[in-house]
Amino acid sequence: MKALVSVKRVVDYNVRIQVKSDGSGVVTDGVKHSMNPFDEIAMEEAVRLKEKGKVTEIVAVTIGGAKNEETLRTALAFGADRAIHVKEEGEVQPLTAAKAFAAVLKKEEAKLFLAGKQAIDDDANQTGQMVAALLDIAQATFASKVEIDGDKATVTREIDAGLETLEVDLPAVITTDLRLNEPRYLKLPDIMKAKKKPIEAVSFADLGVTPAAGLKTTKTVPPPARSKGIMVKTTDELVEALKSKGLL
Amino acid sequence: MSKILIVAEHAEGKLNGGVAKTVAAAKGVGGEIHVAVFAADAAAVAEQAAKLDGVTKVLAVNNAANANPVAAVLAPQIVEVASGGYTHVFVPGTTFGKDLAPRIAAKLDVQQVSDVMAVHGPNSFDRPIYAGNAITTVETPAGTVVATVRLASFQAVGAGGSASVETVSVGAAVPTHTRYVKLEAQKSERPDLQSAARVVSGGRALGSSENFKVIFDFADKIGAGVGASRAAVDSGYVPNDMQVGQTGKIIAPELYFAVGISGAIQHLAGIKDARTIVAINKDPEAPIFEVADIGLVGDLFQVVPELTGKV
């Protein structure tokens, strides 16, 4: 069974985000980028499923400019067998990304589409669900446990009310939450091996995808700052401070 | 004029509190506001939705397939209803809504607006990116506007209304490729995290499940909901549905106590809208003190029981 894993290149999660003073966006030039952490979890899960003999081939896919090859090399170092680079230099919003992934999924006849539940840049949390909708296949989002049995998957999902279990027929989309697994450290030999694995370049046109009309961002600002607080020394002072604010 | 369809989230015959906040966001758009209740038997929930101020009509869709909320099952039904002249489809920004809304948007061939935190007009909204470290204003293109509403950004509307309830039959075929198996819910007598006026959260410094008792005791004394940092959840001290933060629950209580929580960006993203933040931590350098309204440096195992005795 073939698994397709989508990976996105984003500003590294350790970077302190700076909003441009002219309100035109967030500073992304010259800052460290890495694979979206939720996508690392998706890659790790695919590799574990392959180690268990449930998945036979892992194909990593990304959409973006030339720099995204780095992210695909990381996916190949994790254990993807090969990669597909959908080349697109401009901004790609979730519906357009989903159309491209759906086209790749169909072409590859993959049974499993694994993706992070959201990317930590736009925090949209949409693409996986949209891929499933476009192909009319099952989706199990926010997964914290995945079991594959033949042409079915049993997925435990982290939802507000607790842990929900769904059974889905394959092909299906599964999006990963934090506690699904802990991604491995990449070892040098794997990184070296990844350099020799094949990456196929395709365009939206090759996939028959027309970009959907997008949201237009008119302004980007930093969040409102909180006013400076006070420090108290004892619990009595704390109780007093809360009472004076009418909170107790 | 706008005509807004809100998808009701509900469980065990009770309307989710997030729906009243979603109605508040819809009121910002203006126009007609309809709430659709999809259930095996929608009557009880529809009655609750009809009381929400600002709602002009409630649509009850009864179908045995809707006994449990499964996005793939709900989406085609919602798309059919939405095709009846609706300009907007709003869903609460809970795990229910986040799972469901993109499935609706893709079927309607439109981009979705995630986590609406302010409404400027029918086609202009604010939403957070980068874990709330930047706020963008976006304009939607032509077509239906599908959005999830960030609940912490809106005050629930009152329940003094009396909209009419209409039973609607929906013909859309629903798929069978996704089957609900079970829900392991944490039963709790405490106030729900997302609607509680007071919340007390514990972090890694608690050190164990047993030690969380000091948090529970204090919370019970002041009638608060109980949350936790990701570190406390990952360490297995408390279940995941208690996690407060960017990847857990985003909350907006009147009063928030962060106990033994250092204040990682991911946690702060979940409490930005709390009215008053109190931090108790033994490390005076902890980043939580930078956002706290009131800070107390001290050993939580001493401070918290002391507080419990004094409030």
UniProtKB/TrEMBL annotation, chain A:
The protein's matches in InterPro entries, at most eight in alphabetical order, are given as: ETF_a/b_N, ETF_b, ETF_beta_N, Rossmann-like_a/b/a_fold
Where's the Electron transfer flavoprotein alpha/beta-subunit N-terminal domain?
23-211
Q: Which domain of life is it from?
A: Bacteria
Which keywords does UniProt give here? Electron transport, Transport
Matching entries from Pfam families are given as: ETF
Please give the SUPFAM superfamilies that the UniProt record associates with this protein.
Adenine nucleotide alpha hydrolases-like
Its needed co-factors are: AMP
Return one GO MF term.
electron transfer activity
Single biological process term from Gene Ontology: carboxylic acid catabolic process
- How does it associate, per the subunit comment? Heterodimer of an alpha and a beta subunit.
Q: Which family does it belong to?
A: Belongs to the ETF beta-subunit/FixA family.
Q: What is the protein's known function?
A: The electron transfer flavoprotein serves as a specific electron acceptor for other dehydrogenases. It transfers the electrons to the main respiratory chain via ETF-ubiquinone oxidoreductase (ETF dehydrogenase).
Record protein name field = Electron transfer flavoprotein subunit beta
Q: Which organism is it from?
A: Sinimarinibacterium flocculans
UniProtKB/TrEMBL annotation, chain B:
Do you know which InterPro entries this protein is assigned to?
A: DHS-like_NAD/FAD-binding_dom, ETF_a/b_N, ETF_a/FixB, ETF_alpha_N, ETF_asu_C, Rossmann-like_a/b/a_fold
Does the entry feature the keyword Transport, yes or no?
Answer: yes
What Pfam families would the database entry show?
Answer: ETF, ETF_alpha
- CDD domains given for it? ETF_alpha
Q: Which UniProt keywords apply?
A: Electron transport, FAD, Flavoprotein, Transport
Record-linked SUPFAM superfamilies = Adenine nucleotide alpha hydrolases-like, DHS-like NAD/FAD-binding domain
The protein's required cofactors: FAD
A GO MF annotation of the entry reads: flavin adenine dinucleotide binding
Q: How is the cofactor bound?
A: Binds 1 FAD per dimer.
| GO biological processes | fatty acid beta-oxidation using acyl-CoA dehydrogenase
- Give me the residues that bind FAD, please: 204, 229-230, 243-247, 260-267, 281
Residue ranges of domain Electron transfer flavoprotein alpha/beta-subunit N-terminal in the record: 4-184
Q: What is the protein's known function? A: The electron transfer flavoprotein serves as a specific electron acceptor for other dehydrogenases. It transfers the electrons to the main respiratory chain via ETF-ubiquinone oxidoreductase (ETF dehydrogenase).
Instruction: Give the similarity note.
Output: Belongs to the ETF alpha-subunit/FixB family.
According to UniProt, the name of this protein is Electron transfer flavoprotein subunit alpha
What organism is the protein native to? Sinimarinibacterium flocculans
**UniProt lineage:** Bacteria, Pseudomonadati, Pseudomonadota, Gammaproteobacteria, Nevskiales
